[in-house]
Specification:
211 residues; alpha/beta; Glucose Oxidase, domain 1; 2 domains; 6 helices; 10 strands; 31% helix; metal ion binding; magnesium; RraA/RraA-like_sf; RraA family protein
């Protein structure tokens, strides 16, 4: 089933269930539009800072999160709106990929983009830039509810991303979304079949209610 999913499908099903704020904003883009990302959220909350604290390792919680990633998990970094940091790069991608992480999602920036693209590791980001997080931001909590790009994400939520963007499926409605997606997939298949056969769009829509 998972290999047949796409963000527009999940977004439509979530809308039908009354969850209309589960798609991240359009500025959150994949580094590689040919790669799909699907997995479980591991969340991290960033705090803006404006200087490095002497003697402090600002990467402590970041390191702990990446080192504890299980296969299929996706680190979700909630960096806020400042656009001051690129918390993710080649080294974190390498460490996460070795642990069979399913990808990474952040509303902050990403750097080392050519190296990450060459790795084939899925990264969805809020921009590209070289700015290290040291002296600009640090993780203050992990595995807590966060808002990434304005969308609430809880640890364990299902995160799906493709060329159209990213959708977060809350665990509470996951079973209903899976059922609804299966039904809509069948309807879309029949809709496409009839459209390709030349049946008018209005006729097909009135029959299946899918557009």
């Amino acid at each position: 089933m998972q290999e047949r999913l796409f963000t527009a499908l999940l977004s439509d099903v979530l809308d039908s269930l009354g969850h209309m704020n589960q798609a991240l904003p359009s500025r959150i883009r994949p580094l590689d539009e040919g790669i799909t990302m699907a997995g479980r959220a591991r969340t991290a909350l960033y705090l803006d800072v404006y200087e490095a604290t002497p003697g402090e390792n600002p990467y402590d919680l970041e390191i702990d999160l990446v080192d504890s990633l299980a296969p299929g998990e996706i680190p979700v970094f909630a960096c806020g709106q400042s656009g001051r940091i690129a918390p993710w790069g080649e080294l974190l991608s390498t460490a996460a990929q070795v642990r069979r992480s399913a990808g990474a999602l952040m509303d902050g920036m990403v750097r080392d983009v050519r190296a990450i693209r060459a790795m084939g590791y899925p990264v969805f980001h809020g921009g590209i830039g070289p700015l290290d997080s040291k002296g600009r931001g640090k993780i203050v909590a992990v595995d807590v509810p966060v808002e990434c790009g304005g969308v609430r994400v809880h640890p364990g939520d299902f995160v799906f991303g493709d060329a159209d963007g990213v959708v977060v499926v809350p665990q509470a409605v996951e079973a209903a979304v899976a059922e609804g997606a299966e039904i809509k997939l069948r309807g879309e298949k029949e809709t496409l079949r009839e459209l390709r056969a030349g049946v008018p769009l209005r006729t097909v829509f009135e029959k299946y209610g899918i557009l």
